[in-house]
């Protein structure tokens, strides 16, 4: 009787292991097929889902991999991690939605998101370069509508409201022109449509003029006007 009982336990154990491996292999296959559709096949599909084309996605992956902050793991590569991040921020998706599409646990999706986020934030000094005003921008010189009227202009500046989730004790400070809480983010860009300065963090109720004053007077990460 004991021998039969032991045989049943061994059979159940091997069966459960087989099912786990089958589920894992099925998830790997579906993830591989999804990544191929997103990044290797139709460029329009890649743009619609990740908000950038295939070439731009490949360059971003190489840059982030070069920082050393993102690495291939035993179960996921950098391409998958970046794709999940772009899909979330591009469509305001929830963790449970990405868990379903990528066949990953909620913890894995969250961990990959924050790893990519930290890697992108580390590149601010590389991509956010403020102009020195020493020469007129080519985009102005080559446009008769701008030249010579805007020959001393170095870019454009504006504020934008981004939806945020904050605790109830401070939520009123984040409610301004919108019915939901927001951050009022100050940003500048050059005439070739590249961001040159970003100041996030201010509550949605804060006036644009106050944020601009802070950007000009702060001790670090200040807005430089040549």
From TrEMBL:
Residues 157-215 form the DDE Tnp4 domain. One of its GO terms (cellular component) is nucleus. Keywords: Hydrolase, Metal-binding, Nuclease, Nucleus. InterPro entries: DUF8040, HARBI1-like, HARBI1_dom. GO terms for molecular function: hydrolase activity; metal ion binding; nuclease activity. It is found in: Nucleus. It comes from the Eukaryota. Its cofactor is a divalent metal cation. Residues 32-121 form the DUF8040 domain. Belongs to the HARBI1 family. This is DDE Tnp4 domain-containing protein.
């Amino acid at each position: 009787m004991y021998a039969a009982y032991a045989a049943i336990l061994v059979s159940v154990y091997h069966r459960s292991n087989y099912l786990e491996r089958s589920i894992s292999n099925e998830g790997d296959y579906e993830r591989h097929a999804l990544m191929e559709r997103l990044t290797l096949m139709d460029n329009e599909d890649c743009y619609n889902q990740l908000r950038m084309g295939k070439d731009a996605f490949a360059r971003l992956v190489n840059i982030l991999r070069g920082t050393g902050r993102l690495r291939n793991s035993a179960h996921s590569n950098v391409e998958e991690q970046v794709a999940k991040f772009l899909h979330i921020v591009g469509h305001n998706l929830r963790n449970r939605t990405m868990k379903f599409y990528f066949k990953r646990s909620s913890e894995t999706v969250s961990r990959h998101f924050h790893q990519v986020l930290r890697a992108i934030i580390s590149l601010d000094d590389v991509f956010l370069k403020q102009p020195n005003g020493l020469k007129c921008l080519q985009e102005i010189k080559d446009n008769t509508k701008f030249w010579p009227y805007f020959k001393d202009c170095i870019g454009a500046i504006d504020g934008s409201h981004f939806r945020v989730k904050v605790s109830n004790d401070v939520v009123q400070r984040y409610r301004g022109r919108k019915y939901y809480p927001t951050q009022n983010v100050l940003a500048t860009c050059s005439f070739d449509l590249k961001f040159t300065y970003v100041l996030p963090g201010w509550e949605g109720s804060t006036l644009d003029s106050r944020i601009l004053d802070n950007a000009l007077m702060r001790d670090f990460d200040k807005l430089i006007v040549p």
